[in-house]
Amino acid sequence: MHPGVQTQTNGAQCTSNFVFSNGSEVFLGQAAHCSGTGGETDTNGCDSGSLPLGTPVTVEGAAKPGTLVYNSWLTMQAKHETDANTCQYNDLALVKIDPADVAKVNPSLPFWGGPTGLSTAGTSALGTVLSYGNSELRGGITQLSPKQGASLGDTGGGWSHTVLTVTPGIPGDSGSAFLDRDGKALGVLSTLNLLPQPGTNGVGNLSLELAYANANGGVGAVQMVPGTTPFRGPLL
Predict the structure, then answer these.
(1) Whole domain around residue 95: which residue ranges?
(2) Which of 41, 125, 153, 165 is deepest in the core (most CB within 10 A)?
(3) Beta strands across the sheet bearing 223-224
């Protein structure tokens, strides 16, 4: 198991992003909306429905289901979050890996390697971004999974990055990892944008999402686990 494997939550297929740990437990990240109970246009986590914590999540490669232990949407609703940007763009969930499967976990991102650390600086316009989507709509053609592109800049007070890749993220890629050009973990694929920039994706800022989880999530001091495979760098 590693970043980029498919997850299934009540029939909804998504792509995992990074591996996390609080020192005693191991988690795989996915998007909070992957356990949403509303429609595709329900993207505001402060008023959108979600399956409860404790929901089983099937993780590709695992012998036993993982368990949803943190969901930013549920947390924001319980906290009565009022900041509009946080409500709109905070889209992170953590799936606890069953102890029987922890030894199978590798934190390295396929194809790209890394992550080398956590990005806290956001992106600049036209800065290189790298991703790995694993939508079932691609029929298992892994050559289409690695994507390289550029950031069009930060939005939502830094909570989100608008990115354009050679092929955009599609349904099933939701939750997948984005790296910056140095291999640092930048964000989590959240939305496919139709307006005002068709074909772009909205990528949640992982450093802000993780800080929110640590301040409010009740799962301990969670940190992203760096990859063990060297980062290969952007393609020329």
Answers:
(1) 6-107+209-224
(2) 165
(3) 12-15, 6-9, 56-59, 66-71, 93-96, 26-30, 19-21, 223-224
